[in-house]
Amino acid sequence: MKAKKKDVRALTKEQLRAFFEAQGDKAFRGNQVYEWLWNKGAHSFEDMTNISKKTREMLEENFVINHIRVDQMQRSTDGTIKNAVRLHDDLIVESVLIPTPTRTTACVSSQVGCSLDCKFCATARLKRMRNLNPDEIYDQVVAIDNESRLYHNRPLSNIVFMGMGEPLMNYNNVIAAIDKITSPEGLGMAPRRITLSTSGIPKMIKKMADDEVRFKLAVSLHSAIDEVRTRIMPFNETFPLDQLREALEYWYSKTKSRVTYEYVVWKGINDRKEDIDALVRFCGYIPCKVNLIEYNPIDDGEFQQASSQAIDKYIHGLESRGFVVNVRRSRGKDIDAACGQLANKQV
Ligand code: SAH
């Protein structure tokens, strides 16, 4: 049986150049193919018109070009668009376009399913099937950029890794995708317009700091008390808050980049004074800001958004100590595109 053909988009430019050299051809041919794949978005070797027919056939024999396919696109009344994205092996992930008056943000997935077990998140209920490849992440961004131009008459301005999956559990591929997104050969986007959101894996936060990444970091905190956090995010047992704190202090010392804490306030879970006090203390460790996210119900009612009075107490508690806090309203709720709702309709 013939060996399975390799996805040509898994190769770096250097690897493509080396491939052509090994074939007795010019390394430069690698640049040409790379440009077709990444700048011109070619979906077949046939399209590569400045490459000889013989070479195209040779490529065809050795490689496939995998591309994502937007299977279904849903548009919310608020302008949010959700894509159901079919991968080459028929698995599905979702990505979202979120327009505001001043920006268009792509919310992209990094894994099929998720291996973490946050009790309030729909994606956590799906088994983690596999990591996304760099090109599968990149393609989601390109698809949303195209939709942004088509429906909102402007290019994509920001990217958040807040879709399905835990990006730090797929570190290498996420970094490779971001490299491509920020490189002039890809989309040429500024790293500061990209935010990676993590549930908080200390070792990987330190690795990012050592790698001197230039994108922004958001951490899904939701509680600054171990006992409470473990109840809603059980992996906190393995990576407790003091380890997270230490990693974040390391991150800040290396990058000087302020962290965003994402935080949902739930009735009867983290709406007490001691919860607010603990968050205020946690905010004192490194420069940060807090995004209070609206809860998007996913189920039976175990979790309920706290009252607006409870949220006001959080805002007051933080602001009175000089911390920056924003309240983030949900977008795209009517099409299950809001935080934590991705995959709602696949379970
Ligand atoms: N795994 C990453 C990114 C995906 S989730 C992370 O944990 O950060 C993106 C954000 O949505 C996280 O802050 C997450 O805690 C939050 N979230 C998950 N489920 C939610 C829900 N039902 N309502 C509101 N926010 C939710």
Give structural notes:
This protein is an alpha/beta fold. It contains ten helices and 14 strands. It has helices at 13-22, 28-38, 53-62, 134-152, 171-182, 202-210, 226-232, 241-255, 273-283, 308-319, and strands at 6-7, 63-64, 69-75, 81-86, 92-99, 104-107, 111-112, 130-131, 158-161, 194-198, 216-220, 259-263, 288-293, 324-328. The strands form three sheets. It has a ten-stranded mixed β-sheet, with helices on one face. The chain is elongated and about 70 Å long. The two termini are 37 Å apart. The model has no long low-confidence stretch (mean pLDDT 93). Bound molecules: S-adenosyl-L-homocysteine. The site of S-adenosyl-L-homocysteine (SAH) has 17 residues, from strand 10.
Sequence-ordered SSE layout with sheet pairings:
Blueprint: E1 6-7, H1 13-22, H2 28-38, H3 53-62, E2 63-64, E3 69-75, E4 81-86, E5 92-99, E6 104-107, E7 111-112, E8 130-131, H4 134-152, E9 158-161, H5 171-182, E10 194-198, H6 202-210, E11 216-220, H7 226-232, H8 241-255, E12 259-263, H9 273-283, E13 288-293, H10 308-319, E14 324-328
Helix pairs in contact: 1-2, 4-5, 6-8, 9-10
Heterogens: S-adenosyl-L-homocysteine
The H-and-E topology, N to C, reads as EHHHEEEEEEEHEHEHEHHEHEHE
How helix-rich are the residues, as a percent range? Answer: 25-40%
Number of helices: 10
For this entry, what is the oligomeric state of its chains?
single chain
Low-pLDDT runs: none
Query: What is the CATH topology of the largest domain?
Result: TIM Barrel
CATH architecture of the largest domain: Alpha-Beta Barrel
Q: Could you give the order of strands across the largest sheet? A: 3-4-5-6-9-10-11-12-13-14
The structural class is alpha/beta
> What is the β-strand count?
14
- For the record, give the distance between the C-alpha atoms at the N and C termini, rounded to a whole number: 37 Å
Integer count of domains: 2
CATH homologous superfamily assignment of the largest domain: Aldolase class I
Q: Which sheet architecture does the biggest sheet show?
A: 10 strands, mixed
